[in-house]
Amino acid sequence: MLKISEKQSGTEYYLVKADMLPEVFSKVMGVKQLLSAGKAVSINEAVQRIGLSRSAYYKYKDAVLPFYETTQGRLVTLIFTVENFPGILSGIINHLANAKANVLTINQNIPLNGLADVSISIETDRMNTQLKTLLDSLERIPGVRSCRLLARD
To answer: What residues pair up with 56 in beta bridges, in sequence order?
Structure first.
């Protein structure tokens, strides 16, 4: 289990597999997903579709977050495995710029067997998209073999 503490508030967070949590937490996330995807127009409609009471939703809505949402406003480091051809790093940086991610550092290893590892640290506080959405789009760039979240602060 991963324990994360916020220095300012003294609040502690734990990263727990969803299938280990009581069902109410999964249902709260289901309501949030329906609302954010526009598949429900109101909280009332979403809780009815999921089978959760409104009071349970309001009780837990601010305490339950998807893993990627907790990285908003923070420093994250992404690690890529990319094919070695001109412009691949430029494509990645353009995607980050379009998402309004603030690039802090870029480290690229020398390519071996046509592949190179690249780590990029970014600030996410001004991003105009969710981190998970950004990661999915980065993985679709031609020449990007993998992209994953390495660390967050």
So the answer is: none
Helix (H, G, I), strand (E, B) or coil at 82: strand
Which fold does the domain 71-152 belong to in CATH? Alpha-Beta Plaits (3.30.70)
Please give the C-alpha separations between residue 98 and each of 13, 73, 146, in angstroms, as whole numbers.
31, 17, 20
Integer Cα distance of 2 and 111 in angstroms? 33
Q: Which has the closest alpha carbon to 22: 70, 63, 72, 54?
A: 63
Residue boundaries of the structural domains of the chain: 2-65, 71-152
What phi and psi values does residue 70 have, to the nearest 5 degrees?
-75, -5
Helix (H, G, I), strand (E, B) or coil at 124: coil
Task: Write out pLDDT tens, residues 114-147.
Answer: 999 999 999 988 888 888 889 999 999 999 999 9
Q: Who's near 100: CB < 8 A, 6+ residues apart?
A: 126, 127, 128
Q: Is-contact 1 15, C-beta < 8 A?
A: yes
